[in-house]
Amino acid sequence: MENMGDWEQKDLVNELMLGRELARQLQIHLNVPSSSPETRETLVHEIQASYEKALSMLNPTGSIAIGVSESPPSLSGSPRTEDSERELKDHDLRHASRKRKGMPRWTRQVRVSPGIGLEGPLDDGFSWRKYGQKDILGAKYPRGYYRCTERIVQGCLATKQVQLSNEDPTIFQITYRGRHTCTQAHMLSPSKPLQNQGPTNTVMEPQKPQENLQQQSQDLSSDFLSGLKVITEVLDSSQQSVPPFYFPSAASVKADNEAFSPYVVDKSFIENSHFSLSSSGMHHYSFGGNRNFQTSAEAELTDIICAATSTTDSPTIGLDFPFANVEFDPNTFDNSGFLS
DNA sequence: GGTATTTGACCAGT
DNA sequence: ACTGGTCAAATACC
C-alpha cells in the first residue's frame, strides 16, 4: 500500500512531465511554419494549465480542482481502472457491475447564458447515446446518462452524465467517466475538428482555440470532451428558475422540448450545427436548439471548471491513464492534436 | 423498418 | 434501506 504522499508526488511528477512534453511539442510547432497559430496557442495554454495543476497539487487550497471526489485511490497502487474496464468488457458487459466503481471521472462545468444562447461544452467529437435519466436526490434537475455509441461495437465504456447545477441553472455539470477505447478517440483532433462537417455552420464553432484549450486541459488524454451543445432558449428571465429540465438526448427531445426550459437541447439542430465524427457515419449530435435561440457564435460559453478525478490513482486531469505511468503515449497527444 | 430515446425496474454500493 | 447507475421493453422519430 502506498501512502498518499507517494500518490501526490507521482501525480505531481506526471503533471510536470506533461508540461515538459507539451513544451517540447510547442517547440516543434514553432519550428514548423505550417503549424497553425491556434495549435501553438493551445499548447501554450496547455502548458499553463499543466503548471497550474502542478501548483494546485502543491497547494491543496488551490482552486483548480473541484472535485467530484469519488472513491479513494486504489490501494493496490496500480492504475487498474482501465484494466478493470477491459476485464468487464471481455467478460460480459451486461453482467458487469452496474456501478463502475473504479472508473475515473472528472467533471466539467459549462455555463450557458440565457438570452444569449449558448453553448456548451462542446464537441468532443464523440457520439453519445442516452441510456437513462434520473432524478437525483437533492438535485433540482434530473441527471442524464450517456454512453459512447461505440460501446456495443467496440466495447468503449466511456460514459458521461449531464446535469444542471442546482444553484445556477445556467451551469451544466458534465461528468465524464471512463476512457474512450473506441476509434473515435483516435480520430479526434482538436486542431481539425470538423473535418466531417458538411455545411459549415456558423452556429457553433465547435473548436475555437480557446475551446481546444479547455478540452486539452481537461483531458489531455484525449478522449473525453464530450460533446454537447447546449443551447439556451430565449425566454424571459422570469422563467429561469425553470421547470422541467430534460437533457438533450439527441433527438427526441423535440417534442417535449417545447415544454422544457431554458435549455433545450435538441437533435434537430444537428442539421444546422453539428459535429461529429464520423468514421462510422454515425450520428451527429448536438445539444441545443435552434429555434428561437440565438446561437453560438455569440453565445457565451464558459467553461467554468474542469476537474478530473480519478478513482484510482490519478487525481489530475489528463493524467488518467496514459500518463499515469509516467509515460507519454504519442497517440495520446496525437489524439489531442499535438502531433500530426 | 431501423435506430435512438424514454422510463420503470433492477442491481450494487454505502 | 436508500441512492445512483444501468438495463431493457416500449415508444417515438426519421
From TrEMBL:
<feature type="compositionally biased region" description="Basic and acidic residues">
    <location>
        <begin position="80"/>
        <end position="95"/>
    </location>
</feature>
<feature type="region of interest" description="Disordered">
    <location>
        <begin position="189"/>
        <end position="217"/>
    </location>
</feature>
<dbReference type="GO" id="GO:0042542">
    <property type="term" value="P:response to hydrogen peroxide"/>
</dbReference>
<dbReference type="GO" id="GO:0010193">
    <property type="term" value="P:response to ozone"/>
</dbReference>
<dbReference type="GO" id="GO:0005634">
    <property type="term" value="C:nucleus"/>
</dbReference>
<keyword id="KW-0804">Transcription</keyword>
<keyword id="KW-0805">Transcription regulation</keyword>
<protein>
    <submittedName>
        <fullName>WRKY transcription factor 80</fullName>
    </submittedName>
</protein>
<feature type="compositionally biased region" description="Polar residues">
    <location>
        <begin position="189"/>
        <end position="212"/>
    </location>
</feature>
<feature type="region of interest" description="Disordered">
    <location>
        <begin position="65"/>
        <end position="107"/>
    </location>
</feature>
<dbReference type="GO" id="GO:0003700">
    <property type="term" value="F:DNA-binding transcription factor activity"/>
</dbReference>
<feature type="domain" description="WRKY">
    <location>
        <begin position="117"/>
        <end position="180"/>
    </location>
</feature>
<keyword id="KW-0539">Nucleus</keyword>
<dbReference type="InterPro" id="IPR036576">
    <property type="entry name" value="WRKY_dom_sf"/>
</dbReference>
<comment type="similarity">
    <text>Belongs to the WRKY group III family.</text>
</comment>
<dbReference type="GO" id="GO:0009751">
    <property type="term" value="P:response to salicylic acid"/>
</dbReference>
<dbReference type="GO" id="GO:0000976">
    <property type="term" value="F:transcription cis-regulatory region binding"/>
</dbReference>
<keyword id="KW-0238">DNA-binding</keyword>
<dbReference type="InterPro" id="IPR003657">
    <property type="entry name" value="WRKY_dom"/>
</dbReference>
<dbReference type="GO" id="GO:0010150">
    <property type="term" value="P:leaf senescence"/>
</dbReference>
<dbReference type="Pfam" id="PF03106">
    <property type="entry name" value="WRKY"/>
</dbReference>
<dbReference type="InterPro" id="IPR044810">
    <property type="entry name" value="WRKY_plant"/>
</dbReference>
